[in-house]
Each structure stands twice: as C-alpha cells, then as structure tokens.
C-alpha cells in the first residue's frame, strides 16, 4: 500500500502539469504557480516550453524528456527527485502521459515511493468527448491508431463490440484513411470530429461517419483532430456470470438485419451476418426479414 497526502508532501515531488492545447488562456493559475516554484521542468521540447515560460515571465531550468530519450532520462530524473528536488513534467500540449511521454516516469516515481501530484489542465480527448453530443459515459480513450491500415483495422476490431463511446486522436493527413477504416470495421456510426479545439479555427462535424467522410473528400483536412465515435449498442456481447449473452437477443430478426445495414453492410451481407450469429439458415432469415418487412 502506497499512501500519499499530496498537500503534506515536501521536497522531491513530481508534478504532472497540464498545459494548453492551443489557447494560452487555458493554463491554470495553479499550473503557473507550480511551474514557477519547482526546481526543474521536464518537457518534450525545450524550445516549445521556453515559449510558454517566457509568455508567463518564468525563467527555469529545463530538461528534455521526449519520445526518444524518455527511457534514458528515467534514472537521472528519479535521482533528482530522490535528492529532494521538485520536478514539473509537461508535454508540448495537454496532459502528459496522454498520447505523450510521461507514463514511465510517473510509474517509476510511484514505484520509488515519490509523491506524484496531478495539476489538471486541458486535454483534447475529454474536451471533445464532453461537447460531442454522444454519451460521455462510459467512454474508452484509444488515442492514435496504428498508421498501417491492416494493423489499424485489427486494432479497431478489438473494440467493435465495446458498448462505450470511443475517442481517438489523428493527424490531419491520416484522418480520411483512418475514418474509412473506422467505418469499415465499426460500421456507419454517429461521430463527432473536433478540429483545432480552443483555437481560432475550432470546428466541429457531428453526423454519421459517411456524411463526415463525404465532406472531408471535398475539403483538405487541416489542423489537429480528435474523433469521438458512438459505441456499440449497450446490449452488445457481454459475459454475465461467466456465460456469454448474445447482444442481439432482444432484437427481432428484422431489427437484427437492420442493425447490420445501418453499420454499412448490404442487405445480402446483413442477412448472412444475422444468419451466422443466430446459427440459422440464410433462407430462413431472408424469409423472416421479408415477412416482417412486408407486414
Ligand atoms: N497530451 C495531449 C492531450 O492531453 O490531449 C495529446 C497529445 S497528442 C501527441 C496530440 C494529438 O491530440 C493531436 O494529433 C490531436 O489528435 C489531439 N489534439 C491535440 N490538440 C488538439 C486540438 N486543439 N484540437 C483537436 N485535437 C487536438
């Protein structure tokens, strides 16, 4: 058991400090105070953080802690904490550790019994989620998907039955292929695309994946994007008391086929998938679908 009374901590404290994702006005008073008071700032890019510090009128020792040296820096930073120095960990934007370096240092500091104190700040995922109009709970933050389409689809496949809103990050030049793969694997779900949050050109697209993709075919995507995707239906595959409960149990055959059609399958494919899931002959599903439809 490791207990921490944060406001009684002294000396070697690791502060995990959130910084703006675009709008400097989002930096909290507390973040400013911590950056001014610590002994050292560990940051992704010293040039980037120097700009933030000079905007705040703070001059402070900095050490780079980024994707490529984060493991090599661990013992040095831990050593400083153990000497009683306080360190603020920041990334270029948002919360450290969220698709940014931080995880290993935080883990090691916790393991070494050093106090780790969050100083909450802006975060693209939560900002996009809460304003998406999609259910904010439960949600699953996935971050960046693999760049390679095959690997990306394999990753998406893991989450296709998850009854939780899904949140992704993506770079502007990959947003179209990424959304195509999301639609291919998860179906034509509702989505909210948030671009340039907190900045002058902040923009939202809230519609089905297919409608957003059509618009993005016409306009070259620019800026930073966060993608919020509707989760699978709540009664998706779930294990109850160790027993598999089929997600479609509450649906009629027609509703089951329509569920697949709404997610991008043709009628023929939807009937095939329904037949496979219900272990029924395709002909029976076809007849039942048309019987219900024709009524
Ligand atoms: N640590 C950051 C956070 O807490 O949100 C995320 C850093 S990650 C390297 C950068 C990605 O976050 C971008 O590619 C984009 O997907 C998303 N992002 C960052 N700023 C954004 C913004 N202003 N608007 C929309 N998405 C943003």
List the ions, cofactors and other small molecules found in this model. Answer: S-adenosylmethionine
Main-sheet strand order equals 3-2-4-1-5
CATH class division of the largest domain = Alpha Beta
Mean pLDDT: 91
CATH superfamily of the largest domain: Tetrapyrrole methylase, N-terminal domain
- Sheet having the most strands: 5 strands, parallel
Shape: elongated
Cα radius of gyration in angstroms: 24 Å
Total count of helical runs of at least 4 residues:
11
Please name the CATH architecture of the largest domain.
Answer: 3-Layer(aba) Sandwich
Q: Which percent range describes the beta-strand content?
A: 15-25%
User: What ranges have pLDDT less than 50 throughout 5 or more consecutive residues?
Assistant: 236-245
Percent of residues in helices: 25-40%
Order of helices and strands: EHEHEHEHEHEHEHEEHEEEHHH
Q: Quickly count the domains.
A: 3
End-to-end span in angstroms?
Answer: 63 Å
Q: Total strand count, please?
A: 12
Organism: Kroppenstedtia eburnea
Pfam family, one: TP_methylase
GO molecular function: rRNA (cytosine-2'-O-)-methyltransferase activity
Enzyme class: transferase
């Amino acid at each position: 058991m490791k207990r921490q009374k944060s406001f009684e901590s002294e000396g070697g404290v690791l502060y995990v400090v959130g910084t703006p994702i675009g709008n400097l006005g989002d930096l909290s008073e507390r973040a400013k105070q911590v950056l001014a008071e610590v002994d050292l700032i560990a940051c992704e890019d010293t040039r980037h953080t120097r700009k933030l510090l000079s905007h705040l009128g703070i001059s402070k020792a900095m050490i780079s802690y980024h994707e490529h040296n984060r493991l090599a820096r661990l013992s040095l930073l831990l050593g400083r904490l153990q000497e009683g120095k306080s360190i603020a960990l920041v990334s270029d934007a948002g919360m450290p550790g969220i698709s940014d370096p931080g995880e290993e240092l935080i883990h090691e500091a916790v393991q070494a019994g050093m106090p780790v104190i969050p100083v909450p700040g802006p975060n693209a995922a939560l900002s996009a989620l809460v304003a998406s109009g999609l259910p904010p709970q439960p949600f699953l933050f996935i971050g960046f998907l693999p760049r390679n389409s095959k690997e990306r689809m394999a990753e998406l496949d893991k989450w296709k039955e998850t009854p939780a809103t899904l949140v992704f990050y993506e770079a502007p030049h990959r947003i179209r292929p990424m959304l195509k793969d999301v639609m291919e694997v998860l179906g034509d779900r509702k989505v909210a695309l948030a671009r340039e949050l907190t900045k002058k050109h902040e923009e939202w697209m809230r519609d089905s994946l297919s409608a957003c993709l059509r618009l993005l075919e016409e306009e070259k995507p620019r800026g930073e994007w966060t993608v919020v995707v509707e989760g699978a239906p709540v009664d998706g595959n779930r294990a109850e008391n160790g027993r598999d409960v089929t997600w479609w149990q509450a649906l009629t055959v027609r509703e089951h086929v329509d569920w697949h059609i709404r997610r991008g399958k043709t009628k023929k494919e939807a009937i095939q998938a329904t037949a496979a899931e219900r272990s029924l002959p395709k002909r029976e599903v076809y007849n039942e679908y048309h019987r219900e439809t024709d009524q």
